[in-house]
């Protein structure tokens, strides 16, 4: 596996991530150019649930929100906004670290369940609170022009905001063989669970081996870890479906059922504090591909994935490979309905333009845990976090 490190705009971007670089072939794009229309933010209304004590998540009370009275002494937050991202968790380390050709990739770019649990506990202890991206901006129409303006973030005193995102929660074919779960499902109580086949081939439904159900439980037990029930943003491609449903197989007899099941999970996640972002259709490198290819890829995402996840303003660059803000590609992405663009960088970076916003994210993975402990110190203790199940001497 090649390790690619690139410098874009002076920032050290992380080694090429995942999908495209772990033996996957992206499909060619064949999307036709639709009329480009700015998307409108999907606003999920919070149930006015009063949180006085931690409660079990139920169907009705999915998303804990702070009451207006509790918000009375909140203060305007002026500091940096951390944004960290993960890939789907390693649920079965014995498959991830089995010394096959993918082992190094998994060691570099993924974290284990144990590591994620430890990170979460540290973040909570270190006074971080989860916010959603849309708590940072507002879209306004001024003289017929869409403008994206900064929104003042209000937080409880001494708390620090944290945006969390998860890339490639598609459960690509290679992931099923290398220790990730197979798909997200809904149980009969409306809770999100994971489904997988264990290394022994047994069906396994769990709540404790992937970011979504782990965070659902954590926030339910610690409502003060989240502002208005915010959890994370899921960045999805489309070329092998979403969340483990092969919604890319448009002519398959299973297509309608796959699509309906995916939408059920997605809608429940939106009700419970999760949001979604485009990660391109084919996980293509926006910086490298032609303008035409970027347009085709983006339009195909809008045609195939947007009907599943709904409107989103967020585009998360595959490989963290962002395009220059003066470029036609950038202008296109903004006009195509993605005025919130996320790259990858070694520290918090948030910049507002009149029509768009750029935010960098830190990659939290094996490379970061092993080599960026100092930079990550304020968030969690990398040395303590590293799971002993990782291969030695890598
Ligand atoms: Zn990716």
UniProtKB/TrEMBL annotation:
Gene Ontology molecular function, alphabetical: hydrolase activity, acting on carbon-nitrogen (but not peptide) bonds
Subcellular location: Secreted
Primary subcellular site in the record, as a coarse category: secreted
Keywords, ordered alphabetically: Signal
One Pfam assignment: Polysacc_deac_1
The keyword Transmembrane belongs to this UniProt entry's keyword annotation: no
Domain spans labelled NodB homology: 264-333
Signal peptide interval: 1-19
Biased composition annotated in UniProt, kind: Basic and acidic residues: 54-63
SUPFAM superfamilies xref list: Glycoside hydrolase/deacetylase
Region (Disordered): 45-71
Record-level GO BP terms: carbohydrate metabolic process
An example Gene Ontology CC term for this record: extracellular region
Protein name: NodB homology domain-containing protein
């Amino acid at each position: 596996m090649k390790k690619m490190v690139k410098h874009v705009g002076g920032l050290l971007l992380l080694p090429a991530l995942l999908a495209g670089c772990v033996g996957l072939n992206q499909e060619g794009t064949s999307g036709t150019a639709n009329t480009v229309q700015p998307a409108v933010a999907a606003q999920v209304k919070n149930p006015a649930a009063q949180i006085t004590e931690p409660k079990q998540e139920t169907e009705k009370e999915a998303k804990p929100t702070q009451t207006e009275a509790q918000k009375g002494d909140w203060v305007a937050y002026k500091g940096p906004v951390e944004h960290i991202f993960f890939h789907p968790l390693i649920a079965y380390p014995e498959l991830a670290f089995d010394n096959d050709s993918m082992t190094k990739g998994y060691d570099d770019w993924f974290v284990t369940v144990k590591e994620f649990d430890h990170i979460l506990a540290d973040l909570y202890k270190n006074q971080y609170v989860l916010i959603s991206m849309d708590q940072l901006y507002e879209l306004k129409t001024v003289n017929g022009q869409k403008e994206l303006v900064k929104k003042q973030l209000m937080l409880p005193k001494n708390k620090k905001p944290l945006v969390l995102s998860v890339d490639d929660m598609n459960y690509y074919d290679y992931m099923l063989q290398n220790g990730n779960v197979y798909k997200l499902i809904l149980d009969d109580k409306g809770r999100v669970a994971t489904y997988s086949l264990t290394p022994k081939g047994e069906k396994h439904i769990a709540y404790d081996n992937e970011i979504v159900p782990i965070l659902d439980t954590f926030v339910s037990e610690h409502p003060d870890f989240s502002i208005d029930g915010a959890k994370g943003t899921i960045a999805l491609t489309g070329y092998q479906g979403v969340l483990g449903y092969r919604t890319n197989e448009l002519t398959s007899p299973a297509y309608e059922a796959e699509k309906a099941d995916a939408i059920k999970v997605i809608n429940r996640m939106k009700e419970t504090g999760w949001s979604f972002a485009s990660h391109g259709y084919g996980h293509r490198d926006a910086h490298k591909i032609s303008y035409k290819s970027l347009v085709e890829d983006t339009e195909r995402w809008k045609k195939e994935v947007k009907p599943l996840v709904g409107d989103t303003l967020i585009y998360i660059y595959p490989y963290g490979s962002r395009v220059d803000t003066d470029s036609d590609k950038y202008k296109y992405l903004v006009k195509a309905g993605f005025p919130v663009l996320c790259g990858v960088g070694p520290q918090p970076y948030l910049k507002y333009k009149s029509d768009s916003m750029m935010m960098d994210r830190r990659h939290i993975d094996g490379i970061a845990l092993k080599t960026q402990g100092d930079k990550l110190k304020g968030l969690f203790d990398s040395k303590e976090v590293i799971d002993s199940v990782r291969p030695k001497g890598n």
